[in-house]
């Protein structure tokens, strides 16, 4: 069926009082952005709804895009008719027939914005309800939890009828929650943490550490490809790659083995904090989950977090790996994350890193290296690129080719 518009209902933002206007404006902007390649679509953000007028564009494709936009509670593809109850009856019957099986129940849920329309909401309910019952033998109305709800809105510019309500992504529109950086590895967790950060309305800049020649070009490309996958939820993303080889080599040479991991992490966080402040971001996200590995115990967090006062946000803190994997599959990052390219954190890691590093020792051993000089060098050589939905970095043919060499 050719729908005329998608009626979008706001989620949490409808309770945001005076910020509501800004939220709606940002959501309108984000929706326009994800639909930019549907030239005929028009969007009208209003105080209670956002109307996506299709003007003949394919509704299934538009619906798939809308499912990725944070700040949407749910939406309904709708058909517009003139303000004529007879036309409304026929469309309601068509929509009902699309879903109806013997024994199902229904109700009409009418609203009236145009107070001059001759029928009030009760009249619309009645007119459509009795028409449907007359035309479908055995059809029964049910007010509580019916199988099918026909929503009907009489507006100034026509009557809009819908029979389906599709869940949106929830959360808050990206851009309403400020900016933060994300420490992105190529693993399973940090992409999921990114998604959850975006879901709370935060715009995210990716920071990725790489250590050539210990880590390959493919490992770097994997982090970029993950960023492209995540950009469908937020629009383009700044990707900041920071060389980490020299720092790791120096730490390996100067620091006692038990503290290699802790000191490496302190330097990563120091660099990320410096980048965060320079870019006027307000916090740092990571993919850490309490107790998952040696660096993610409370003691390790004390020893590592010591280097910054910025909020370090850990959306996965209390999640089990199975829960995290479930989200990774849902958002389409899992298959990429399990590609076996090495991360810089796995090189130079002793077989048994300290699970309870001491803060005083961490501070002491860090002094064995030239922190400022190493940081300056890494920051001077970092590179920022912009990554967009659909960008590709992992060419499968290249994969095969490099394996042949
Ligand atoms: P992930 O699945 O995100 O890699 P993990 O469980 O493997 O997490 P670690 O590898 O110890 O745990 O990393 C913990 C966190 O440190 C990551 O979630 C990420 O936020 C950050 N991190 C790890 N490696 C890098 C890297 N190369 N660049 C930037 N951040 C990183
Ligand atoms: Mg990892």
From TrEMBL:
Reaction it catalyzes: [ThiS sulfur-carrier protein]-C-terminal Gly-Gly-AMP + S-sulfanyl-L-cysteinyl-[cysteine desulfurase] + AH2 = [ThiS sulfur-carrier protein]-C-terminal-Gly-aminoethanethioate + L-cysteinyl-[cysteine desulfurase] + A + AMP + 2 H(+); [ThiI sulfur-carrier protein]-S-sulfanyl-L-cysteine + a uridine in tRNA + 2 reduced [2Fe-2S]-[ferredoxin] + ATP + H(+) = [ThiI sulfur-carrier protein]-L-cysteine + a 4-thiouridine in tRNA + 2 oxidized [2Fe-2S]-[ferredoxin] + AMP + diphosphate
Subcellular location: Cytoplasm
SMART domains cross-referenced by the UniProt entry: THUMP
GO biological process: thiamine biosynthetic process; thiamine diphosphate biosynthetic process; thiazole biosynthetic process; tRNA 4-thiouridine biosynthesis
Residues that hold ATP according to the record: 183-184, 208-209, 265, 287, 296
Keywords: ATP-binding, Cytoplasm, Nucleotide-binding, RNA-binding, Thiamine biosynthesis, Transferase, tRNA-binding
The family this protein is said to belong to: Belongs to the ThiI family.
Associated pathway: Cofactor biosynthesis; thiamine diphosphate biosynthesis
Main enzyme class: transferase
Gene Ontology molecular functions: ATP binding; CCA tRNA nucleotidyltransferase activity; tRNA binding; tRNA-uracil-4 sulfurtransferase activity
Predominant localisation class: cytoplasm
EC number: 2.8.1.4
Lineage: Bacteria, Bacillati, Bacillota, Bacilli, Lactobacillales
Domain of life: Bacteria
Function per UniProt: Catalyzes the ATP-dependent transfer of a sulfur to tRNA to produce 4-thiouridine in position 8 of tRNAs, which functions as a near-UV photosensor. Also catalyzes the transfer of sulfur to the sulfur carrier protein ThiS, forming ThiS-thiocarboxylate. This is a step in the synthesis of thiazole, in the thiamine biosynthesis pathway. The sulfur is donated as persulfide by IscS.
Name this polypeptide is given: Probable tRNA sulfurtransferase
Primary gene name: thiI
Annotated InterPro entries: Rossmann-like_a/b/a_fold (IPR014729), ThiI_AANH (IPR020536), ThiI_fer (IPR054173), ThiI_N (IPR049961), THUMP_dom (IPR004114), THUMP_ThiI (IPR049962), tRNA_STrfase (IPR003720), tRNA_sulfurtransferase_ThiI (IPR050102)
């Amino acid at each position: 069926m050719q729908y005329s518009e998608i009626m979008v209902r706001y989620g949490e933002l409808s309770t945001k009082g005076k910020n509501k206007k800004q939220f709606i404006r940002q959501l309108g902007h984000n929706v326009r952005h994800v639909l930019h390649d549907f030239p005929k679509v028009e969007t009208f953000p209003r105080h209670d709804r956002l109307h996506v007028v299709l003007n003949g564009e394919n509704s299934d494709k538009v619906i798939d895009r809308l499912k990725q936009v944070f700040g949407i509670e749910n939406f309904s593809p709708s058909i517009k008719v003139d303000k004529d109850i007879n036309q409304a009856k026929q469309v309601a019957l068509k929509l009902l027939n699309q879903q109806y099986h013997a024994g199902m129940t229904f109700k009409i849920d009418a609203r009236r914005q145009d107070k001059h329309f001759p029928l009030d909401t009760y009249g619309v309910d009645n007119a459509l309800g009795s028409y449907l019952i007359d035309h479908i033998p055995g059809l029964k109305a049910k007010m509580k939890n019916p199988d099918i709800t026909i929503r009907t809105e009489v507006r100034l510019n026509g009557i809009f009828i819908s029979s389906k309500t599709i869940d949106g992504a929830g959360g808050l529109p990206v851009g309403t929650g400020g900016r933060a950086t994300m420490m992105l590895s190529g693993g399973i967790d940090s992409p999921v943490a990114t998604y959850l950060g975006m879901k709370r309305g935060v715009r995210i800049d990716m920071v990725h550490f790489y250590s050539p020649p210990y880590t390959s070009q493919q490992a770097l490309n994997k982090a970029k490809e993950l960023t492209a996958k995540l950009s469908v939820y937020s629009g383009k993303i700044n990707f900041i790659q920071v060389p980490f080889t020299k720092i790791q080599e120096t730490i390996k040479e100067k620091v006692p083995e038990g503290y290699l991991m802790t000191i490496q992490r302190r330097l990563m966080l120091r660099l990320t904090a410096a980048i965060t402040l320079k870019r006027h971001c307000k916090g740092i996200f990571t993919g850490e989950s309490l107790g998952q590995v040696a660096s993610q115990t409370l003691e390790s967090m004390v020893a590592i977090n010591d280097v910054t006062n910025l909020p370090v946000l850990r959306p996965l803190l209390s999640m089990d790996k199975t829960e995290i994997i479930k989200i990774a599959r849902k958002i389409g990052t899992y298959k990429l994350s399990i590609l076996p390219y090495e991360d810089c954190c796995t090189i130079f890691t002793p077989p048994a890193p300290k699970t309870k590093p001491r803060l005083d020792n961490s501070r002491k051993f860090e002094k064995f290296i030239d922190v400022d000089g190493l940081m300056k060098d890494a920051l001077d050589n970092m590179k920022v690129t912009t990554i967009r939905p659909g960008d590709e970095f992992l060419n499968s043919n290249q994969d095969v080719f490099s394996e042949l060499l």
